[in-house]
Structures are given as C-alpha cells and as structure tokens.
Fold these 4 entries.
Entry 1:
Amino acid sequence: MKDDLNRIRHEYGNKELSKSNVSPDPFIQFQIWFKAALNENIPDVNAMTLATANSNGRPSARILLLKDFNEDGFCFFTNYESKKGNELLINPYGALVFFWPEMERQIRIEGKIAKLESDLSDAYFYQRPIGSRIAAAVSPQSQEITDRKSIIKKIDQFKVKNGDEFKRPDFWGGYRLIPDLFEFWQGRENRLNDRIEYTIGQNQWKLRCLAP
Ligand SMILES: Cc1cc2nc3c(=O)[nH]c(=O)nc-3n(C[C@H](O)[C@H](O)[C@H](O)COP(=O)(O)O)c2cc1C
C-alpha cells in the first residue's frame, strides 16, 4: 500500500496565480474560478468539504453541496439536528474546501456560519424533488438506525399520512458561511504551488502570497 501511495506523483504546472492576476474581491475571484470549473464539466463541481468542530475543538468534516453563493456568503442545506448541526449550535464557525483536480485548484474558505433565513430555506425545500423532500423529513440524520429497511418503512408511512403536501420540517434547512478568509491555491511545478490568501479587516480585503 505504501509503495502504491508513493508511486502517485502528479506534476502540476499549467496555470499561474499571483496578486496581479487575481481580483481584489475574493467573491469575484471565486466566481471566476467556479465558472471556469463549470466550463470544464467537472463532476460534482459544487461538492465541498465542510469542517466543523465540537466544544472541545475536535474537528469533523464531510462533503456537502454548495447551493448558492453571493456577497453574503456560501449556502448549503442539511439537517439542523445532525452532527454538524449540533456542532454549529455550540461552535458557529466552519471551513469549506473545494478541490478541482482537473484544474489543479483548491479553494479554502473560513468564517462564521449562521442559519439561513427561513424564507430562503423554504424556497429551496419546495423546489426539491418530492423524494428528496420526504427523505429530508423522515431521516434523523446522523442518528443510529437499525437498518435501511426501517427508513424505507418510515417513508412509506409518511407518504400515507402526508401525501405530497407537507411543510418544511423545522429541523431541516440552510446555513450560510460568511467568509472572513479565502485561500486560492494553484498547483505548480516541483510543488512550488501558488497560494493567495484574502483576509478581511476594516471592511477591506487584504491579499497575501503564502509559501507553498
Ligand atoms: C457528493 C456528496 C454530496 C452531499 N451533499 C450533502 C448535502 O448537501 N447536505 C447534507 O446534509 N449531506 C450531504 N452529503 C452527506 C454528508 O457528507 C454527510 O454524510 C451528512 O450530511 C451527515 O453529516 P454529519 O453526520 O457530519 O452531520 C453529501 C455527501 C456526498 C458524498
């Protein structure tokens, strides 16, 4: 296994990233890179790792789908009573990571996380396919279940009781990460990768080059 891992050595190097070729606004820079990744037809281009931590500082991470982003932040949807939901309740900070290997690019985003306004959560919930809505309403995400069959049974019972017309459950909705740090990473030759970090201070983004 170790030999297999050691054999994996991919040389990066197509593109360049410097303070002079990025936008001074990290949201615009994100949009430029996201659009470029979309144009490359990268599968699950909106999949990102979200890291949270519990009250002891112990981290946990998982993949989620980015569902919206704008100057206000980066939005995703989940169960508020899941592991991540419980961690965010006591420690409302998180970190996102996007990795697009086809473009040799990584983006890290850190900041405070708050629940999305309920009208926005409603708007997203009601446009989901009915099957996904029912799954969200029925699954006690992150809790122990006996087996898959028990969830299927709950789904069948839910359908009989509620049909297609039911409200978004209070325990399911969106979050928004409000960034105070971005890092754009471009793979380069000999691991001398380019890294540009943005941090916010007095309502202004400050850019720094970081060592690879
Ligand atoms: C590609 C992919 C996309 C996912 N998207 C979501 C999502 O948008 N929302 C969500 O709650 N879980 C999503 N999941 C499942 C999560 O990774 C995770 O299993 C779940 O949210 C429970 O995490 P937790 O126990 O840490 O709270 C996705 C998983 C994968 C692999």
Note: Residues 10-126+171-209 form a domain with the Pnp Oxidase; Chain A fold (CATH 2.30.110.10).
Entry 2:
Amino acid sequence: MIRHLNCASFAPRLVGPMVAHVLLVERPEGLLLVDTGFGTADVAHSVRLGRAFRAMMRPALREQETALAQVQALGYQADDVTDIVLTHLDLDHAGGVGDFPAATVHVYDAELEAARHPRGMEHGRYLPVQWQDARFATHHADGGDDWHGFESVTVLGDDVLMVPLAGHSRGHTLVAVRDPEVADGWQVHAGDAYFHRGDLTSPPTAPRVLRVVQRLLAQDDVVRRANQARLRELVQADHPGLRIFSAHDPVELAAFTDA
Ligand SMILES: [Zn+2]
C-alpha cells in the first residue's frame, strides 16, 4: 500500500500554502519512505533551519506532521522503516532522516557529492546535521532510456526507481514506485522538478511568483527548464497508469489524501 503524507507545512508570503509530500510504502520487506519533510529535531531546534529559510518559507513545524509521528500513529515503530529514498537533499526533504536510524538512505551520487562538497549557490541549501550520521546507499544511472524514455536506475528490485532529473539541484531525481493496484501503474514523486500543477500544463499556468522562485533556487536553470519540459511531455502523453506529483503542491496532495 502506498500512503501519501504531508510532513511539513509552509506559508510563504505571496505564494500561499505549501506542503512536503511524502510517500510511505508498506512493503513485505519493511517500510519505505520517499522524502521525509522535517524531522523531530527540526521541530525541536527550528533555529537550525536558518533565519533566511524560516523567514522566506514560514514553516509551521508541527511534531505531529513529522514522518516519525505519522508512522507511529499507524502502529509502527521507527525501526520498521528500512529504506528512505530521497529526491534530493534539500533541508525540507531530508529533515526526517535522523528519526529512522535503522534505514538505508538512498540518494543519487551527484546529489550526495553536492551536499558534501557544495559549490557556489549550493552553500546554505543543505544541512549536514540532518543526515551526517545516515547510512547512505548511492545510485547512478548508466545510460539507456528504459523508463518511458527516461534514464533510470533500480533502487529496490524493479519496483522502486530513481529517474535522474537534474536542474533544481545537482543530483535531483524523480522517484517512481510501482503501484500494484494499477496496470502498468507508477506513482512518481517528482520532488522539486516542478512546484505547481500548472507548471505541467500547455501553456504553463503556474503563478508567476512560483516560476521566479524555481529559477532562483535552481542549481542549473537551463537544465531545469529542459527537464521540466520533458516531464510536461510525459504527463501530456497518455499514460493512464502514471500518477505524477511534486513535493510542495497542496492540491496535488489532496487528490490522494481526500480520495
Ligand atoms: Zn523542496
């Protein structure tokens, strides 16, 4: 079963409410998280998120929104989470890593390299205290276009894939989880490859402020825009089994949680 959680709430001025969309996948081998939002240490020590981030994003920081609290509310324990797959290591995606010490943390190799050795604008976007004690497994795709025309790398069997889609950050990826309840079904966490459902319409209808924010946050904006265009083509091609959503759009999240 694939559950959709909100593991952080934000209220940036001009933009309106944003969420941190997280997947909790119940597999026979253990629980899998895709992204983690904020963790209990972020909530308890919010100063560590930095003044600039807090002033811009205005996070709510509620203990009950952490992945740990939601996993426990379902009757599980922290150690039942065996694997975490991260779209990237930005602080609003990796904060929950520290709450699951038993988990293997899967990340694209270029992203871990960027987080450990930031260059230029990468300084400040990563928060090593969130993940420095994690047990990482790094992944790298080596060519081919085996997943709907995109390069991909298997993370856990054939059911969990990383689809590298750089631009927002150096090693940003989509994470695709096979949906056992749908023929050719995949639920695709697109991380920050786009910010608003209107980024993927033709023509794009995302609010202008969000288009500006995406450009300012991009590690490589030329690559980001090209990859967002590829994703738009994929969404507009008719693949009924594909459900694609981004990390921060509350309307996309509600489409799953209100169902
Ligand atoms: Zn983000």
Note: The first strand starts at residue 2 and ends at 10.
Entry 3:
Amino acid sequence: MTVRPDNAWSEASVDLRKVGANPDYWYPVAWSHEVKSGQTFAARFAGEPIVLVRPSEGAIFALEDRCAHRQVPLSKGTVDGCTLRCVYHGWRYDASGDCIDVPYLGKGKRPNGVRRYPCFERDGLIFVWPGTGPAAAPLPRIGAAADTAYKTRRFGKLVACHYTFMHENLMDMNHQFLHRRTTGKVVPRYLGSRAGERWMEVDYSFARPGEKPPLGEAVIVGGLRGRAGTARDLMTVRTEYPYQTLQMWTKGDAPVLNVWLGYTPIDAAQRRNRTFVVLSVRKPRIPGILDLGWPVLAWFTNRVFSEDCEIVEMEQAAHDAQGADWNREVFPPIHALRKLLRECGEPGSSPDGAQRNPGRT
Ligand code: FES
Ligand SMILES: [Fe+2]
C-alpha cells in the first residue's frame, strides 16, 4: 500500500482531480468534419452520451444518445430529413428531442422524447451545452480560426487525464525541460500574472537583452519574431474557464501565434478528456513561406503535444495509484490556477464514476 508522506503538503481539502467540469458552459464535442451530412456522430460529456445529427438541410442538432424506448444509442439510427429514426423500432425524433412518430401506434399516441442539448457550430468545431442552466450566447469566435490573416491547423486527441492537468501543463511554461529533445533549450522568463472573475493569465518572455538566446529558442521564437532586434517577445497563457489560450506577440497588436484549447471530459469519473487545439499562425508578408514550413510546424506541434499528453497521463496514473493529490506545487501562478479551477468547477462535484443525472426534459 502506498503511504502519503507526513510532510506532503495539501493546499485544500477538496481534491482538484475530483472537481467536475462545470456543465453550464459550451463544450466542444466534435470537429465539424467528423459529422457528415445526413449522418450521426456519437459524442460524450462526462459520461453523458450525446448524439450529434447533421440533417442534409438545416442546422446541426444534439440529443441524448439513448432512445426513450429501450435506451439503445440513437447514434446507430438514421437521419431522415430533419429527423432521427431509432435503429430498433423506428421511433422518430425531431430536433427538439420530441418523439413525433411511433410507426406501430395510432396517430396522437406519442411517448416522451429525449433530452435536447443546445448546440452550435463555429470555426470548425461543434459545441454543446451539457448543463441544465440556460445556455449562454454562443462563443463569439474560436481563436483566430476565422481570420484570413492567419493559417490555422486543428488537432487534438483523447488524453487519459483529468482536464485540470491540461490547464496546469500549458500554464506552467517552466516545464520546457520536458521538450528539450524536440525544441532544444528554451528558457521562458516569468513576467507576471493577472486574474479576474473566471479567468487568469500569465505572461512570459523569451527576450534577454544583450544575451544570445539558446539555439532551440532562437529557431522557434526567432522564426516567429522575424527580423532580429524588433522583438517584443511576449507570451500570454490564459485560462478563461473552461477554455485556454496561448498567444504570442512580437510587434504590433496582433499576436503572431494564437492557440485556442478546449478540454471536454469524456467519462463519468472525468479521468479522460478530449482535447481540441486550434492553432493559428499569422501569415508573413510572403505567405508561401508559411505554406512551405507548414509540414514541419505540424510535425513539431504534434510532437510537443504528444510529449505533453504523455506526461499528464503519467500524472493522472500517479494520482490514481495514490488515491489523492500529493503534488507539491511551488509556482505561485499554478496555485492561483488551481483555485480558479476549483471555484469554477461543478459545485459540490466529486466524480467517482457515477453517471451524472442528465436532467431529461
Ligand atoms: S429502442 Fe428505439 S425505437 Fe425501440
Ligand atoms: Fe509542453
């Protein structure tokens, strides 16, 4: 049996890894291209099965992925016009989740339907509102994906860890040691942090006046920077619950790098999350250069992302083995981040594998 050391430091009685993601937000559940016209897609939020339906005409919609009749997944059914028919007995549901036809019952006899989830599509992502509170206005934009001044790549994966490990990993730039074989030596310098209601952000710089940067840093940051000597070199990592962004400026107001990340818990215990990354790079004056370097950038970002995923999965494994959070965090902004994630998380939650009440309407 593993015994927690006496001097292990605990910052709060609530284990952050047991704080559920607050469902009263918009969460990305699929890339647009995954949901084909006239087809369904099986998604999940914290153990809740959700079917996305893209009718051949009309807007995409999202329903509970369980037929009201015998609970089989509606995602196995067929899209028929603007409706969804269950694969088993052919009950038909409309976009609001109402059962509008039971083929073998007389007209007017209709059982209760299934839950509808507010849903919208933007910049290559499909979002649902899993909460039972009123849905807020859809997000205004996803990073710089809609801005033609940027070239954007979308990637991500299923990561076997609690979503809070993802937030901490990105915000704590002091982990560049992990990436040394991919990036070479990169030395970010912490400048300061700010916080407000439901958000906090941390600034880093790579600039060291009068000093030569390490080679890895010179290649990566210098490449983004353009001409030497014009650098402002400011990187800001921000958690605006429940999303994260990473932006980097070199000169002017427009960031040269703009990354948006969403983390959607998949299982009821929230030990796995689907990470969605929308990464945009500002096009240089000669855009062909960026196109030319794009495969290298894709390789590089995939590799850094894999290294991050691997290490956060190890953190989750340690948490599972120890049954609690033994972390001894020393970087003050991460304490602030953990506090924010605790405060914004699902009130009173302690996901332990129990399925959330989907609040069927
Ligand atoms: S189980 Fe869906 S129609 Fe019977
Ligand atoms: Fe990293």
Note: The chain has two domains: 18-128, 150-344.
Entry 4:
Amino acid sequence: MSEAKVFDYQFKYRVASRPGGEGLLSCFACGVCTAGCPVSEVEGDFNPRRIIHQILLGEQEELLQSEYIWLCVGCYRCTAHCPQDVEFTNLLKVLRELAVEEGTVSAEWKKVVDEVDRRTQELRRALIKYLWNKGINSLEEFERFYREEIAKLGWVEGEGSNAR
Ligand code: SF4
Ligand code: SF4
C-alpha cells in the first residue's frame, strides 16, 4: 500500500517569502518553462510546471526529498521565457536551500552538485577537443563513438547506455 502524501498548505508562502521565490504565486501554469528546458528534454519526469504545481499544492516533503530539484543546470532559459516573471531557476534554488536547512540532504551534497556542474564543463571541453583531434565530425561517427564509450559506464542511464 502506498503512503499517503503529506500536504503543507503554508509551504507556498514560505517559498514565496524567500529571495528568488517572490514570483511563485504569479504562475498561471502555461508550461513555457517546461517546453524550453534542456533537462526536461533528456529527463521526461523533470517538469518545471509540475514542480510549481507541487509547491502550490503543498507537497513539501515529496519535493524536498526528490532528486529532481537537483537536476536543473541553471541555464535560466525558463526564467527568460516566462510570461509571468516567475524565475523558476531561482525557485529551485529556494527548494535546494530548504532541503539543506531541513536536513533532507547534507550541506556537503550541494557542494557535490556544484562540483558536478563544474566537471561537466571540463568533460565537455575534453570531449570536443578529442573529437576535433580524432576527426570525428559526422553525426554517424559521433553516435558510434558515443554509444561505445557510454556502454563502458554501467551507471549511465538513457539512450546509448547499457544500463537498461
Ligand atoms: S512559464 Fe512561467 S507562468 Fe508558465 S508555467 Fe512556467 S513558471 Fe508558470
Ligand atoms: S534553468 Fe533549469 S529548469 Fe530552467 S530551463 Fe534551465 S535547466 Fe530547465
């Protein structure tokens, strides 16, 4: 039997009262943020509009315990395109702060995520240089190379991995 969800109807006011959360209550659920999000493209369950809906419903516990609030890469595309100036990128930062404050994750976890972001850029730089130097310059060659490399990483889920 699944556990009943816990709702905190004051949660939205706590989020909206924090720097970065001020625009929350202006959201009219148009979905523009989700449509342009690069993380939503690769992770269908990451849905900014749904996260806002969950905040408004008061699903505090579920949200603060979710890995999804850590997936955003901070590109600010959602914020730039939002017709209501909601600033979803900053809303997620508020959720992350609350997760740390409420002990859902350790303060060290936030540093780990920051380091993942930094290393991802390093990885991208190394990959581009490698492809350039090896002359891998067609999509077909790249797909083959990518699938071979990803297959070596057992923990990577998704297209091209061997984890499914
Ligand atoms: S784009 Fe803005 S108004 Fe539309 S759902 Fe996203 S946050 Fe809400
Ligand atoms: S800032 Fe985060 S949520 Fe917004 S579009 Fe970029 S990755 Fe998606």
Note: Confidence is low (pLDDT under 50) at residues 160-164.
